[in-house]
Batch of 2 targets.
Target 1
Amino acid sequence: MKENWLRTLFRFTSGHKTLFIWSIFFSVLSVFSGIVPYVVGSRLMTDIIEKESSQYGIMTLLVLMLAAFVLKTIFHFISTTLSHHAAYNILNDLRNAITDRLMRTSLGVVKHFSSGTIKDTILDRTEKVEIPLAHMIPELSANICVVVVTVIYLTVIDVRLALAALITIPLASIPLFFLMKDFDQKYQDYMQANSQVNNVMVEYIEGIEVIKTFNQTGVSFKKFSDAIIGFKEYTLNWLQTAWKTQNMIFSLLPFTLLGTLPVGIWLYLDHALNLNQLLLGLLLAIGLSGPLNKLSLFTNDFNAMKQSVLNTQKFLELPILDFEEKEIRELTDSSLNVIDVNFGYKKNERVLSNINIEIPSNTFCAIVGASGSGKSTLLQLLNRFWDVQSGKIMLGGVALKDLTQLQLNQTISYVTQDSFLFKGTIEENIKMGKPDATPQEVINAARTASCLDFIEELPQGMKTDISFGNGQLSGGQQQRISIARAILKDAPIIILDEPTASIDPENEQRIQESLRQLAKNKTVIMVAHRLSTVMKADQIVVLDNGSVVDTGEHADLLKNCPVYQRLWDSYTRTEEWHISN
Ligand SMILES: Nc1ncnc2c1ncn2[C@@H]1O[C@H](COP(=O)(O)OP(=O)(O)OP(=O)(O)O)[C@@H](O)[C@H]1O
């Protein structure tokens, strides 16, 4: 069941309660110090009008007013410092909670969101919680407090004066009602338009190579500029319609003299109030305008915060793979057994049907099949990026579902088709596999992955910074670095999805040899289109249209498996074509 948004917010704020309590305390002190000049001022004006004041008396009252003003500023500063401290900590917790959730949810769910949407939520939308938190919690409580106390004070002078001071509240409620009527929907549309700009922007940057190659600059830029113009028009339209109503509220609500001035004068003329009471009443009513103004502004902030929390909730409540709270299970070996597995990305769809594969420990298993036959999907299931729909996968005699995430991560090294390198040096990228590796271990891993030669040729060798994109390295070089990373991790199982796709034949041979060496004491599972890479595998699994059609060694399959024969034919024809060209 969806958690109430206020409860979600409270979960994150409760860890910083003490800071907020102190912040509210200083905010209340600040607001009350702000009332003192009005009270003292009314005394001063009465004394001057009735000529009862000495020069010393006037000076004392002026100093008192100044002191109250200085105190108000100091207390406000302390209050907002504390609340900002708390608010930024909460933002930090919220962002960590979202990224943590994304890590624990299945890859399929994460891929459902565009990079723009994820960036927008983690950075921009959570940021919208900061201003209300840092200002609203302390200031709202303090301003409500000051309104209540001022009204009590006015009631003590004369209840009619107090009621007159509050007359603007029901008057301002009418435009406020119209403003708030469809606020939620409008705010959601606004966020949607904002998200659209983010998405198009990220797409434009990520796809810049394709855009330039296909001379799409005009079209793509139009998509980008249309999103920006759409956002501008939506925001302006909304502002224009809301602005009039908002201005009416902003000018009406704080105009407390509307009631107090005529009622106060009438009461004074009727001798129900003396001069000091009248002046005090009018000044207090003026003093009310600031807090009332703040309260009206907070209605906007409150709604903006609500929408931001509702949006982050979508991420905080993503379904997670149940990795939590499991005991570490002892693995008998590094074998993998796929038993009667069925899987589809959607509920009623089948991408893999009735898969049964036995991969003994320390063997080299290749998975081959036509494009779209389900090879990458199968590898991702072995790595538990998704859960199977039925059947099970056993690792070292234990069901994959019963392993903790840490244990799974430590047992499997996974090299994907897109070798992603992070900003930093080559050494840092390889060391991701084992952060405490010695320089010699990094060099050994690079040698095994056949990338040491080209790294040593770079002027800064292992320390070469690849922060400005992977552009300075070829696709094959990037792939070899990611293989080195997986080798250094030294996990008992290595899964590789087309690791040699962009590697030249000479390096491919060397990597092949390295992988075969690795398979002497590791289980290696690899998808490959180039069948020459897997000819010497201990076992080749042939997939066709999501099913295993045969399993065996190269020579046997070539004799007995028509699907493999077709794959081999088309592979050799492609190779001959390459040679003849
Ligand atoms: N994230 C996804 N969501 C939905 N469908 C997907 C997803 N990934 C793959 N598919 C579909 O699953 C099927 C198998 O895809 P998969 O990538 O596993 O095949 P493959 O054999 O590895 O293909 P290739 O050799 O071209 O990489 C395809 O029909 C593909 O469209």
Note: The first helix runs from residue 5 to 13.
Target 2
Amino acid sequence: MQRIRTDLLVIGAGSGGLSVAAGAAQMGADVVLLERHKMGGDCLNYGCVPSKALIQTARVAHAMRGAAQYGIAAVAPQVDYAAAKDHVAGVIAEIAPIDSQERFEGLGVRVLRESGRFVSPTEVAAGDHRITARRVVLATGSSPLVPPIEGLDEVPYLTNESLWDLRELPGHLIVIGGGPIGMEMAQAHRRLGSEVTVIEGAKALGKDDPELAQIALEAVRGEGVEIIEGAQATRVGGSAGAVTVETSDGRTVAGTHLLVAVGRRANTADLDLEAAGIETTRTGIKVDAGLRTTNRRVYAIGDVAGGLQFTHVANYHAGLVVRSALFGLPARASTRILPWVTYIEPELAHVGLTEAQAKKELGMGVEVARFDYAHNDRAQAERHTRGMIKVVIHRGRPVGASIVGHQAGEHINFWAYALASKARMRDVSSMVSPYPTYGELNKRVAGAYFSPKLFESSAVKRVVGLIQRWLP
Ligand SMILES: Cc1cc2nc3c(=O)[nH]c(=O)nc-3n(C[C@H](O)[C@H](O)[C@H](O)COP(=O)(O)OP(=O)(O)OC[C@H]3O[C@@H](n4cnc5c(N)ncnc54)[C@H](O)[C@@H]3O)c2cc1C
Ligand SMILES: NC(=O)c1ccc[n+]([C@@H]2O[C@H](COP(=O)([O-])OP(=O)(O)OC[C@H]3O[C@@H](n4cnc5c(N)ncnc54)[C@H](O)[C@@H]3O)[C@@H](O)[C@H]2O)c1
């Protein structure tokens, strides 16, 4: 057995763990990084990157079908699903060197391709190694949750891990779960030529503002995706190529392939957390506002910390933990400034509080401003007029923003900055936005907020009248 003493031990080389390891090593800390599977974790290998690459193929196919609106003859695309998967693999391969063992070793990180588990509050076993670290960061991520649906263990099904290996286009894809994974893959497969049925137990895209989610869902339905809401999948049957799903409202849906996308399970099972006195919750590892676990020397970040599960959240956590573990500075994770985007078309993006949350948490004085894409000239020119921006305001400052529409994910960056910098709506309205850009939506929604105050105020009208009388 080989003993290792180090400043920082990071378990898991996904989005969060890699960011901690890179940051800490470059600041001079001695860092050991454990990874038991693929460098880059879920985002690179099974999540964000492959899904966005496939979505792009689907978008091109969709654009070909819809070219007539721009004066180009529409064509029925000949989709080669296997080639699309090659494109997906190619994109992963292009990005992989950034997350590779070689790159991290080049940064001075000691990378061990082993599974880590606690043997005491201060020691981690990994293969033949016994590691003692001043601080430990758990960044072990999450895995697809496989629900206890009757018959599921006897029927072949796909998850976000196996989907990328599928080479033949599903004839009829049944998706259980109408969250971001389910909806992104449902629309992409419909655009690639599959029949698609989504079975959602509650409300599809249920974590987003319902007013905007509705607009996105209508668009996806308009492309031919069947979305059944309020129906739990209760029983699965059939065999490869002929699958059936029974639902709580008495339907039976038949298809060729089944994708299970009903949420995530935190990867805690193999860590022997009890040996280190680390407690868990229903969703992951229990952490305080500074991301410390119930063992003060151990932090948990990213998906395994059981909060919002996004790559940028894991990266945000990583920055806080490096600050705390290396410099002993206080760190406090805020959820109020964390955006997310669902990459269906139209994109659905959000940051901060929804209208309902703001009204519940802040009570009186919450105001809402809206502006439609249809009033944006760039959106008109490009025929992307479906969509809206909605900003929730409290005491003159935005506390939340939601956007549904073309490139909503790009535009939410603006509001993420506004919330993080505690900007006022006055600051937003004073900006000059180039014409014609979609970004004008941000200024115009601020205009929509101020317009009634300016144009419908009798006091303003009186003051203007008085001043005009005195002006030479
Ligand atoms: C289909 C899909 C699409 C997604 N799209 C997006 C998106 O567009 N944008 C976005 O922001 N987020 C997206 N996400 C979420 C994003 O992938 C995750 O939030 C992110 O990967 C979490 O990073 P992490 O570092 O916490 O965990 P991971 O990236 O999961 O990394 C954890 C790593 O730890 C390793 N590990 C686990 N246990 C051990 C152990 N005991 N010892 C050693 N190693 C261990 C694992 O092998 C893994 O490599 C998507 C997720 C999915 C599934
Ligand atoms: N664009 C992005 O950033 C992106 C994309 C994909 C995934 N992700 C991350 O991955 C996480 C997991 O995504 P997800 O879509 O698997 O989970 P999710 O928890 O967001 O959605 C799962 C859905 O499945 C439904 N469900 C659960 N059991 C069911 C059953 N038996 N029958 C029918 N419906 C059922 C739930 O009501 C829920 O709406 C997301 O929350 C997100 O953090 C992010």
Note: The first helix runs from residue 15 to 26.
